[in-house]
Amino acid sequence: MTINAVKIEAMLAERGLTKAAYAQACGISRQNISTVIRRGTCEPKTAGKLAVELGVPVAEIIKQEAK
Q1: Are 33 and 26 within 8 A, CB to CB?
Q2: What pLDDT sits at residue 35?
Q3: Do residues 47 and 62 lie in contact, with contact meaning Cβ atoms separated by under 8 Å?
Q4: What is the pLDDT of residues 12-63, one digit of tens each?
Q5: Per-residue DSSP letter, 58
Q6: What is the DSSP letter of 27?
């Protein structure tokens, strides 16, 4: 899945979360969080974990394909 890394970074900033704290809450390594944000892609299961910890639906953090 293609995620909106800028949106995730903004949500982390709004919540005062570091990537390390976010990673721990998600049950994902900090390195994996950094890789996902840098590349802008991840597996659907990972996107689900990221969204749950932010308290938003997955659709909120993925990039919508242009039609």
Answers
A1: yes
A2: 94
A3: yes
A4: 999 999 999 999 999 999 999 999 999 999 999 999 999 999 999 999 999 8
A5: G
A6: T
List all residues 6 or more positions away from 56 whose beta carbon is below 8 Å from its beta carbon: 11
Residue with tokens 């570091």: 18
Please list, in sequence order, all residues whose beta carbon lies within 8 angstroms of the beta carbon of residue 27, skipping any fewer than 6 positions away.
49
CA 47/CA 44 separation, integer angstroms: 5
Element at 40 (helix H, strand E): none
List, in sequence order, the alpha helices (H) in 1-67.
Answer: 5-15, 19-26, 30-39, 44-54
Can you read off the two tokens belonging to residue 59? 């659709």
Structure tokens at 8: 């995730």
